[in-house]
Amino acid sequence: MRLTAMIAGLLGILISLTAQLFAVIDDSYTFGSIGFLGIFSGVLGVIASFQVHKNNKKATILLVISLLCGIVAISYLYALPALLQIICIMYTARKMKS
Predict the structure, then answer these.
(1) Residue 46: its pLDDT value, please?
(2) What is the pLDDT of residues 33-78, one digit of tens each?
(3) Neighbouring C-alpha atoms within 13 Å toward the C-beta of 29
(4) 54 Cβ neighbours under 8 A, 6+ residues apart
């Protein structure tokens, strides 16, 4: 799951940078810089990937925050990283129960 979370975070960063580079998303300042928020969510996903095997509760919280920020930032473009993060969230939540 660590690799899946890492791929999701890196994809989030890559997709956000690409979308901003090709002007798919605009830098509107309603909720901060939307491009920066997408990059932030990807970085947060990468940080959470390092916590998956150490601290499941912390990793789950970070993945949920990353998922929500990514969806707010770049909406439908964040679909693939969001799907991968949902898989990791379900895995870490299930592992937390047992």
Answers:
(1) 94
(2) 677 888 899 999 999 999 988 888 999 999 999 999 988 888 888 8
(3) 0
(4) none
Question: Is the sign of the CA dihedral 9, 15, 21, 24 positive or negative?
Answer: negative
Per-residue model confidence (pLDDT) at position 3: 92
Distance CA 49, CA 38 (A): 17
CA distance 47 to 41: 10
pTM (two decimals): 0.84
- Look up residue 29 and give its two tokens: 């300042």
Torsion of CA 26, 22, 70, 72, to 10 degrees: 30
Give the Cβ contact number of residue 30 at 10 Å: 6
